[in-house]
Amino acid sequence: MSSDAKMTVRLHDADNVVTAKTTIPRGTKLADEGVETASEIPVGHKVATKAIPTGEPVRKYNQIIGFASTDIAPGEHVHTQNVEMRTFDRDYAFGADAKPVEMVPEAERATFMGYVREDGRVGTRNYIGVLTSVNCSATVARLIADAFKGDALADYPNVDGVVALTHGTGCGMAGYGEGWEMLQATLAGYARHPNFAGFLMVGLGCEVNQVSGMAERNDWKLGETAHVMTIQETGGTAKTVNEGVARIKEMLPKANEAKRSEVPASHLILGLECGGSDAYSGITANPALGAAADLLVRHGGTATLAETPEVYGAEHLLTRRAVSREVGEKLVGFIKWWEDYTAKTGAEMNNNPSPGNKAGGLTTILEKSLGAVAKGGTLNMVDVYQYAEPIAAKGFTFMNTPGYDVTSVTGMVAGGANVVCFTTGRGSVFGCKPAPSIKLATNTAMYNRMSDDMDVNCGLIIDGEATVQEMGERIFRYILDVASGMPSKSEALGFGDDEFVPWQIGAVM
């Protein structure tokens, strides 16, 4: 069969595998690699370019992604049938790669059109939120928000909507400990989010998570744009819905006073997420998003990487960029917490790609993680945060979250992310009110198939039509446009009401 040098991509000279850019038939000669395929190689999957004896590392990105579980001959398909995970040492080298960041001169920095709140925070959207203390008040919250659909907001053109964010916890749980603290941090983070002009917190009345307690702990200034109420005290479902609708109507004139104004890009906190990943994620969309994150940081803004289980095995690439040993140790501490947590629950950290990830060519968590960290760009890691903790630092940061997309993004938005970029190779559909979500496709075929959901086609990189840096610049400009009010594809489709999923830790009692 004829040779075609464009059928694979090599990521580093030291790698012993290359990735298929298209499905490669058996018996195809790969001229650049000097091998012939021993079987069909599916698009996105790996083929060995040299012999890899049993127990020897499989290398991609010039990093270990696993170990040969049997002898692998040149030209063989390299995947789960012949690769396994093993424990190996990683050099954290705290701060070894940290260096001064070349900032864009202040007079030349990018701007966007945002909503400046009275306390100086800046939003990219202008919603009113109906939040819930417990699942028992979820239906009431939705009925309140439903009253403002259709033409109900026609007289309030500056209000993006009234959104009910409900969840499945708040009772049957301990009123202390990690699970409690994360729920409190999440709800408090949404209540103060700059994309909310005001909020109404609805409770049942007898739950563990009392609305009055939250108001006191967070020093909510109840009144014009902050309200709390319970179904039991108000007199039942119908009365609570009527009262809730009345309170939202009282907030609307104030919310509608908000106007967009030009503000520096330094007010952006960008959440970095990937889901439904494939082998192209670490080659196209993730490094392109990393380039955009670097640009945002150089313009004075903040980018936040998350999903601790999905940087596992690649965390040493982040600790090397830490501005101090203390910052790097924070990340390592969360890695160790996850190792302990998963062991206690009978799970494991060392190999969690989903069936879709594996179908897309990702073999181990190491391979997935090495691609995932590319979203974080190349600049210094300035701080590391616990789930839903307020993101205060300017620069590249990390937040400890699960790898479950909706829960991960919920934590970052609670921390203050006012725009999110979500890369996907298999085709995840996602939104996260009140923050707009921008979807980045890793390959052209999926982008064309799901063009109603995808905002940017990063597959142009593998197609040879754009470089990573060029695509990073496009993404950065797209972020500014969306932050200024241009609807993302997920917003146009109505996503975001059901993707609020706080991290639940602890016994359900």
Largest sheet: 7 strands, parallel
Number of strands: 23
Cα gyration radius (Å): 24 Å
Question: Per DSSP, what share of the residues sits in E-state strands of 2 or more residues?
Answer: 15-25%
What's the helical proportion of residues?
25-40%
The quaternary state of the protein chains shown equals: single chain
Helical segment count:
14
Give the terminus-to-terminus CA distance: 63 Å
Briefly note the structural class of the backbone: alpha/beta
Gross morphology: globular
Which spans have pLDDT < 50 for at least 5 consecutive residues?
Answer: none
Q: Calculate the mean pLDDT score and round it.
A: 95
Commentary on this structure:
This protein is of the alpha/beta class and 509 residues long. The chain has 3 domains: 5-84, Archaeosine Trna-guanine Transglycosylase, Chain: A, domain 4; 115-261, Ribose 5-phosphate Isomerase B, Chain: A, CATH 3.40.1400; 266-493. It has 14 helices and 23 strands. It has a 7-stranded parallel β-sheet, with helices on both faces. The protein has a 4-stranded antiparallel β-sheet with strand order 1-2-5-8, with no helix packed on it. Strands 13-12-14-15 form a 4-stranded parallel β-sheet, with helices on both faces. β10 and β11 form a beta hairpin. The longest helix has 20 residues, at 237-256. It is globular and about 75 Å long.
